[in-house]
Amino acid sequence: MDKRNFIKTLSLGALSTPIYTSALSNLLASFPDINTGELSTNEDFWKKIRQDYRLKPDYINLESGYYNIIPKPTLNAMIDHARMVNYEGSYYMRTVQWENKKRMTGKLAEVAGCSPSNVVITRNTTESLDMVIKGMDWKAGDEAIMAIQDYGAMRDMFKQVARRFGIVNKVISIPNHPESDDEIVSLYENAITPNTKLLMVCHMINITGQILPIRKICDMAHAKGVKVMVDGAHCIGHFKFKIEDLNCDFYGSSLHKWLAVPLGTGLLYVNDNNIDSIWPIFAESNREPGDISRLNHTGTHPVYHDLSIENAIDYFNMLGVERKEARLRYLQQYWTSAVRDHPKIIVNTPDDENRACGIANVGIAHIKPDDLAKRLLEDYKIFTVAIDHENVQGCRITPNVFTLTRELDVFIGALKELAAS
């Protein structure tokens, strides 16, 4: 074996070592006969999962939506990757960097439920979806449809495209408590005209946690010749689904959220029919039009974060998406069910378990969201984030697999005390 292949083998070998702890493996083996539903309520099990996280003791963290704290095994692996890249230096960057990134893309595609040929690794959802919005061929009079609840960064890009190319942005509003899927689908359908070119829709609305009927929206839009771009920032690693089952044209997600990959990692999915129609943000002249990797010319960046994707997926797969989804949904329903009937507490998230999972939003009558978040932190040592939106006023609550029900009991008590005051 020559020196080049020897070093290449060392680099790949370091990546192939499983990083999930033997403690996690042993823990799962000690609960062999408990089904997913029962395990979701077993505090002893989740207390042991919590040990894989280093958590700041100053407050109860109910804000996992911006960034998921990564478990210790993934963090340690990322540090090892950084040391390895620094040790090999430019040699690594010029030899095995791309082969390793291809491996990461393959692992990611398995979790996302799509072909590796339709996926690129990005830095976040904003980069993924802005690449689509900015990269489409627009002309004056073209229309795009979005919801008022959609993330501001993408709406800002649509505004920029409107100023630059003269497109028309049509904004609808999704009810916080829809009566049916048809009600939501009809809102988008009624906004479509012969000039509509693209529809943007959240898979899970980031400020309320509501899950939308994406497949039905995509089927309706495609029947009318409209492409659909899905904001799935909070979905991969949160609940079980396959992108290919959604029948969307574009899908973006942030891996540093619920998949718990280190900061600055995202995903863009583009189906086969649309890869050659998007202009890359950074020019790439050496790829064929149908090769999705031409959208991924980002320049030099911290590649050890990309390498950590595999480690995060190993941990995620060991824990199991069904177990994680069931636990997150249980935690959300644990606290929302305790306050939904309170006359002064407003839950802005559907109670139908199929319309939400771990994220929910809550407000208190006559208390502004910023004041509520401040009171929760200062008086009860509970960290959340205020949402003061046009049709949603409250705090977004995002527990995680390390959250315990005793922490939610403190939160429930705080809400009731604040409502009474």
In brief, what are we looking at here?
The protein contains 16 helices and 13 strands. α7 runs parallel beside α13 (303-319) and α8 runs parallel beside α9.
Describe the structure.
This protein is an alpha/beta fold and 421 residues long. The protein has 2 domains: 97-313, Aspartate Aminotransferase, domain 2 (3-Layer(aba) Sandwich); 322-420, Aspartate Aminotransferase, domain 1 (Alpha-Beta Complex), CATH 3.90.1150. The chain is built from 16 helices and 13 strands. The strands form 3 sheets. A 7-stranded mixed beta sheet has the order 2-8-7-6-5-3-4, sandwiched between helices. The chain has a 4-stranded antiparallel beta sheet with strand order 9-10-13-12, covered by helices on one side. The longest helix has 19 residues, at 321-339.
Please describe the structure with a list of short key phrases separated by commas or semicolons.
Aspartate Aminotransferase, domain 1; alpha/beta; 13 strands; 16 helices; 2 domains; Aspartate Aminotransferase, domain 2; 421 residues
Residue share in β-strands:
5-15%
Structural class: alpha/beta
**Uncertain regions spanning at least 5 consecutive residues:** 6-10, 16-20
Instruction: Return Rg in Å.
Output: 22 Å
CATH class of the largest domain: Alpha Beta
Shape: globular
Q: At CATH's second level, what is the architecture of the largest domain?
A: 3-Layer(aba) Sandwich
The description of the largest β-sheet is: 7 strands, mixed
Number of helices: 16
Question: How many structural domains are formed by the residues?
Answer: 2
Tally of DSSP β-strands: 13
Strand order of the largest sheet: 2-8-7-6-5-3-4
The name CATH uses for the topology of the largest domain is Aspartate Aminotransferase, domain 2
Average of pLDDT:
94
The CATH homologous superfamily of the largest domain is called Type I PLP-dependent aspartate aminotransferase-like (Major domain)
Instruction: Name the helicity range.
Output: 40-55%
